């Protein structure tokens, strides 16, 4: 489909671009939300891991003690191998939009001027606000550690979300147990105590405006209820500092996970499930460039959970593109299953387009959250959402305006609900 | 691809629309084939399950004692959340075609007039014949219970098909054993007797014009031959009313399945395999809205079957879109494997288009059955086939007329074989 | 997308067609690289297996003692059922290009004239060279048995590649052990001796210009290191002629595979992994038409291998289309994982297009080998590459020229790297 400047798809996209957004999932640090220099931007794992994959040694990229500027200079050396990637397109588009960068490539010849120019812009005291406005971002969901004090920032703009990976998968680590004890004042060596402590975390988060709970899950995870009796042994072993067997770890993870789901139900908090990641598959990879997946996973593993917690909304992201059809079908049947964005390795137009198309064809429109940025720095919100908007505009135009003779207004209204409306209704706040 | 009223794709589609069809798989009740009112139409599980998924309580939808009209009024309340779905497009298109409905949405404001108007139309004594004619349906395959007497209807128009799910998977249920005993006059507590009884069912069906045998199968089913000795214990246990172990159930299912395949071979009946459904995954779902699937399934599980029965044609439907490539490849290699339609959760254009494209590129044209309606009421034949025809016309135009410089006539001829011709040659009748 | 004669996609494709190629994977016999008659061409397994699948008995196709001409006459009888397939499009296109065939179908009426005419052309002494030139093929990789003497041909034009399937999976066969003994002069009944022998094979291949090692792997294979102690029992059992248990076979396969990877590392030879084939699934199939696959496979099974051999480049082909997303993701993260072509059942445009699109969007451009022919006879190089070039031109045009406003020159340059440049840099030769 040719989409020239004046194409109807572009026009539709321009209308979608007007919509003020709430980004329902990011890794923004609310105390340093915007970038300070190009180092923060080129340091995004997408660029370091791709440069590494294309041949640059990790030692070059992650050399200790190099300045941000040196690091940028090094990564730019690797960009020539990556100029085809959609990730470099994000980079060029954000440099154009926010720094007035006019070239179509970032090269060893032009990067330094951009570095210096952009650093000046980013040092403006209102840079963070400028980015939010230029990106039409009204609010951004965070992903907070369970022991985050959640103070010192505006929780209406940066909305807390309780990340529970550490609780579910890492209670065996002494530092996690110590952080939990410090955050709650509890020794949690029995199931009852652990439940009580987790309840405290929920109270803390909810009282600070949290609107979601979230977790990323490996492909072989299968949630089931676990009795206190069954959980007690593994939990005590963990607190005694013993090495757990695979079986014990699994029992403990399932127990904590199910407990968290119960508190989500009690507090009416949606529970974001990000399904399918295997951590540290490539241990010699760069920082945050070590995780991959195994596509042999099914939402069928979650059937007991979906049945047991009808009042908990589960916005679900799947890492494997092959999982999208299950997500469409489970969201089509289960009232509490919601399709949520396009995660990580599936976050490229080649996968977003078929996924978006099928979701719009078969999921009730009020259960489809189009996109989240997953960003670490605010500057990436605009180009990532823009990538999605282009795909969405194409699908709305081809399938609805042309395929079903919808008016453009009606199509844009559907886009608005997917991009913004559902974020509000689904994450409407705890009670 | 823009397909305006006068587009070449539309023109090609219009030619496909002229083809008189034999629908090779449906759930039509031949004694009440057409709808009596909008309740029969809005009661289709696609609308109730989607309305339920979008937030309407099951108790509202399935309240005991409500009239058909009340039920329609309630479901219409939920349609606003579903107007994006392809299923609602079926609804609007059939209301337009059969009832002269002019609006583009069915709403709380306009449904009642449509209800009353359409009820009058449907009360005409020739309504069933009108629908068949307007839908260009010459004949429709049924899905009959094994104890169906197959009398009281025209088996040339409504073609019997022996559904074998109960025999293969539910012999442990007393009512199934009783129905079998009643249908055959047999106590079937030994393998030999059971085989004899199943043989009687085949004789009954074939003598009443049955042209296929069919079954839906869970993702973990793997057919293998089972000896009488191995089957005897589980079968006797079932007939003694004992609870079978998982292992025993599996052995018994495999034994019955293999026996049925043998009778298909003897009677030259195609055996429709509908692969991949898990039943009652969501037990609180509405009627017929409880089943889902696990994409981790492979046609490799069926290799022994395909090898053992070279004379049995196996028209295969797969529930998971991810299984389509295996279906294409197995149909490309095995003479007795035939690609059959687009089933249930994979029956939306987003999945049909890539599936259709690959099947046309790599399966011999005489082994590709384009589509079946799977309908419960005749009114759905036209909009469902129409959805498929649009996709087929697009693929034929783009890949064959443009991509291979075929004439439009040649492309339509291929479409005719896929839509109609292969149904006749593949289900040519028992002998 | 309409691609008429003068479309911009066609123009882009024409430029790609100018690129002189090195085909990085084929099954060419360098002593008989070109066909002698249409029997060599119609005898390609794609035509025999599809004709067989469409209904022609194997006994007809593979009747002993029939002449090449008789065989062609028989297969042509089956082509009417296959004229929709992309494989028959290869046939028609090569007959047009190389033999001046003007019809759009090969039929019982016109095949004999083509047979006779083409046989004359193919008898020209420079036919092989003619085909290479018309196909713009500069060099072609072979797939050589481990005991191939590699003499009597120009290894610059026909580049040796060590095929290791027999060593890894068939050491239990006496003939394989005998061939190994003959090739190396070694009895290999101990791990140390076997390693030494394999080392000899590598030395032999490298000294004859081999530029790659290759293997095809079943879906359930998972490479791990195996100690000499653990390998010794299974190896001795194999050499004693005992039947190995499944477990023993697996240990032995893993030991040999890991050993080969170690020699690849030592010799800086890329190791082509062709992942996912199950052999002899359909034992009654025609020659080379018996293999299929099980889509339940993951590159996660190869994580230890990728981590253990950072210096070995692994150009990877996946048989299941569903595996493409993992290949994209693993190539995006692991520096030594390279996406390689479109293999066998996934080698049709319906799968190539989405696969190509995602690879261009997310894999560094220097790690993406667009295509290889996999051909047995030189005549198939052109139509198979042409099929790929059309898809590549479409993706380059739509996603890069239109979608990213790249100049046509820049898009063609990316195409050149994918089609040719990366073959040179990745298979740059042992050292």
TrEMBL record, chains A, B, C:
<protein>
    <submittedName>
        <fullName>Uronate isomerase</fullName>
        <ecNumber>5.3.1.12</ecNumber>
    </submittedName>
</protein>
<dbReference type="InterPro" id="IPR032466">
    <property type="entry name" value="Metal_Hydrolase"/>
</dbReference>
<dbReference type="GO" id="GO:0008880">
    <property type="term" value="F:glucuronate isomerase activity"/>
</dbReference>
<dbReference type="GO" id="GO:0006064">
    <property type="term" value="P:glucuronate catabolic process"/>
</dbReference>
<dbReference type="InterPro" id="IPR003766">
    <property type="entry name" value="Uronate_isomerase"/>
</dbReference>
<dbReference type="Pfam" id="PF02614">
    <property type="entry name" value="UxaC"/>
</dbReference>
<keyword id="KW-0413">Isomerase</keyword>
């Amino acid at each position: 489909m040719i989409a020239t400047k004046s194409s109807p798809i572009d026009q539709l996209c321009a209308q979608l671009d007007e919509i003020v957004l709430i980004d329902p999932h990011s890794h923004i640090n609310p105390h340093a939300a915007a970038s300070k220099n190009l180092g923060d931007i080129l340091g995004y794992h997408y660029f370091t891991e791709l440069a590494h994959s294309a041949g640059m040694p990790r030692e070059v990229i992650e050399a200790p003690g190099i300045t941000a500027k040196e690091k940028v200079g090094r990564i730019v050396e690797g960009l020539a191998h990556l100029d085809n990637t959609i990730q470099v397109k994000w980079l060029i588009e954000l440099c154009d939009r926010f720094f007035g960068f006019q070239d179509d490539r970032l090269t060893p010849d032009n990067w330094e001027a951009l570095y210096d120019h952009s650093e000046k812009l980013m040092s403006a005291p209102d840079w963070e606000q400028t980015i939010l406005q230029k990106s039409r971002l009204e609010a951004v969901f965070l992903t907070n550690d369970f022991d985050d004090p959640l103070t010192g920032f505006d929780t209406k703009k940066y909305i807390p979300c309780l990340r529970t990976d550490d609780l579910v998968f890492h209670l065996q680590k002494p530092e996690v147990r110590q952080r939990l004890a410090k955050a709650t004042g509890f020794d949690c060596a029995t199931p009852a105590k652990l439940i009580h402590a987790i309840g405290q975390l929920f109270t803390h988060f909810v009282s600070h405006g949290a609107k979601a709970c979230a977790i990323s899950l490996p492909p072989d995870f299968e949630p089931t209820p676990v009795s206190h009796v069954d959980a007690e042994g593994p939990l005590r072993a963990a607190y005694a500092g013993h090495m757990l067997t695979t079986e014990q770890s699994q029992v403990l993870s399932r127990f904590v996970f199910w407990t968290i789901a119960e508190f989500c139900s009690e507090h009416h908090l949606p529970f974001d499930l990000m399904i399918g990641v295997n951590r540290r598959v490539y241990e010699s990879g760069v920082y945050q460039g070590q995780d991959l997946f195994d596509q042999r996973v099914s939402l069928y593993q979650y059937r007991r959970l979906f049945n047991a917690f009808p009042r908990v909304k589960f916005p679900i992201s799947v890492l494997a593109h092959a999982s999208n059809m299950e997500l469409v079908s489970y969201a089509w049947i289960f009232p509490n299953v919601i399709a949520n964005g396009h995660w990580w390795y599936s976050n490229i137009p080649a996968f977003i387009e078929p996924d978006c198309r099928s979701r719009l064809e078969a999921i009730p429109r009020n259960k489809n959250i189009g996109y989240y940025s997953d960003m670490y720095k605010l500057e990436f919100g605009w180009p990532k959402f823009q990538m999605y908007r282009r795909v969405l505009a194409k699908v709305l135009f081809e399938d609805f305006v042309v395929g079903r003779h919808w008016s453009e207004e009606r199509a844009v209204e559907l886009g608005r609900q997917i991009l913004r409306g559902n974020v509000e209704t689904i994450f409407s706040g705890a009670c």
